[in-house]
Amino acid sequence: MGASTSPRRQTMSDQALIEGTGADWKTWLALLDERDAAALDHTAIARMLVQEFEVDGWWAQSITVGYEQERGMREPGQRPDGTFSANASKTVPGSITDVFEQLADPAAQAGWLGDIELTQRSASPPKSVRFDASDGTLVLANLTAKGDAKTAVQVEIAKLGSAEALAAAKVDWKARLERLAERLA
To answer: How far apart are CA 122 and CA 129, in angstroms?
Structure first.
């Protein structure tokens, strides 16, 4: 499969993999194929990489996901349990405290959230908040201060049922974050 069509190469280059692990995709795919990794589950593949090849846990997870996608064991964005996860992010105006308040406060959410309701599950103010969403998804928001006047907001939307739902969630959450930015401006 060429570099432009391979799902895993869209997220990590050969160069990054070589720098992090000492080997490129072709080498890792061949090593895993030699060990019949396609017959293993996600955890077993990652464990093999850590134990047999002494690959750091983060890299082992990245290689495992790339291998699973390359061998048709999972689609991009698909988690080991079969559900999908999407991400959206935006740097918005405002301090991390102000942005957290807009995210966590139900009254403030009404101004930018749109057609979905969020029920807070947990929070670590002002850096993160987790929600159960009315559409059945799990929404995890992480905030990073970018100086005093800007905050990066990263949202993961988990428990999506399909690749199509993933694509729709990305579009919907990009629009929501845009409305949040406008509200904070």
So the answer is: 6
Residue with tokens 């949040």: 180
Segments of the chain assigned to CATH 3.30.530.20: 84-184
CATH of domain 84-184: 3.30.530.20
Tokens read off for 136: 């059945």
pTM of the model: 0.76
Distance CA 77, CA 2 (A): 20
Contact yes or no for 104/123 (Cβ under 8 A): yes
Q: State residue 154 phi and psi, 5-degree precision.
A: -120, 125
Question: Which tens digits make up the pLDDT trace of 86-111?
Answer: 999 999 999 999 999 999 999 999 99
> In the predicted model, what is the mean pLDDT of the chain?
91
Tokens of 163: 């690749």
